[in-house]
Write a structure and sequence with these properties.
- This protein is mainly beta.
- The chain has a domain at 203-293: Beta Barrel (Thrombin, subunit H).
- Helices cover 0% and strands 59% of the residues.
- The chain is built from no helices and 28 strands.
- The strands form seven sheets. The protein has a four-stranded antiparallel sheet, with no helix packed on it.
- The model has no long low-confidence stretch (mean pLDDT 96).
């Protein structure tokens, strides 16, 4: 049974929702200030970073219990699963590093030191690089996983970038620029800026649809979600959402869009075809990220 998981940043909890029954199943305690999440389907585990106490919580998605805690670097803000290498990468904003966790025993086995402060992160389609966004340097860097963290390329993006999503065909990445009201489109083959898309105030969260034809962007300052067409990289729709939308993801079947509404203790449920608002789930204070697993 698939569940929806929501990190409540200032409540230090994780809300668990049964979307099939539209039911809040419960709330479990995490570390301090939980944020980004990543799922490890082969092992049935969910990993979430706790920004306030420099840890990662491990959640069993079947029993919905916290089964372990991993100490990482200072102020972890992003996490990515690499199934090929059976590893998780945690971006630590407070000490400019990436902690590498071995998934077989959930131990930190290495640390990559960065030249810039990481804000968001994604695994490159070639499987050999991490793409690291830095809001301080206004850049996207390509960090080699096989050469001791060597920085192979830098791409200048917009002002105060805070999020990244990658098309499944591996051709383009999209970066939300929270201080610039824009989304940067990066050509991943040439590692260069392709174009800049204007959106509304404070673009934050970003997600790609299952078919790769759409990108969803939360605009926290405008209380809406912008839908981008990936064929020509234009904004084609705007969806009003109440309460400071932040994190966003698509359901596993691609039929729903979930939006964590940071200012309203709710998660919005949108129809991925019509973009209609189907309803809201009530959670705890300051929901930041949402994922179905």
């Amino acid at each position: 049974m698939d569940r929806l998981f929501v990190t409540n940043h200032s409540s230090h909890t994780l809300s668990v929702i049964n979307p099939a029954q539209a039911l809040l199943e419960g709330t479990i305690s995490t570390g301090r200030n939980p944020g980004a999440m990543a799922c490890d389907p082969p092992h049935g585990k969910l990993y979430l970073v706790n920004e306030g106490d420099n840890t990662v919580s491990i959640v069993d998605v079947k029993t919905v219990q916290v089964t372990g805690t991993i100490s990482v670097g200072q102020t972890p803000v992003a996490i990515v699963i690499d199934e090929q290498r059976a590893s998780a990468y945690v971006a630590n904003e407070g000490d400019n590093s990436i902690s590498i966790i071995r998934l077989s025993d959930d131990r930190v086995v290495d640390v990559i030191r960065l030249e810039q402060q990481p804000t968001a992160m994604a695994l490159a389609p070639d499987g050999r690089h991490l793409m690291v966004v830095s809001r301080v340097n206004h850049s996207l860097s390509f960090v080699a996983l096989t050469e001791g963290g060597k920085h192979d390329a830098f791409v200048a993006v917009g002002n105060h970038p805070v999020g990244i999503a990658v098309l499944r065909n591996g051709k383009k990445a999209y970066v939300t620029n929270g201080g610039g009201k824009t989304v940067s489109v990066v050509d991943l083959e040439h590692k260069s800026l392709l174009r800049t898309i204007p959106v509304k105030a404070v673009p934050y969260g970003i997600a790609v649809s299952h078919d790769g034809h759409r990108v969803y962007v939360t605009n926290a300052g405008a209380h809406q979600v912008t839908v981008l067409d990936t064929n020509d990289d234009t904004a084609i729709h705007e969806i009003p959402v109440e309460g400071l939308p932040m994190g966003i993801s698509e359901s596993l079947d691609g039929k729903r869009i979930y939006v964590a509404c940071f200012g309203s203790r709710r998660v919005a449920v949108l129809d991925a075809e019509s973009y209609a608002t189907l309803g809201y789930y009530h959670v705890e204070k300051t929901p930041l990220c949402v994922v179905e697993a």
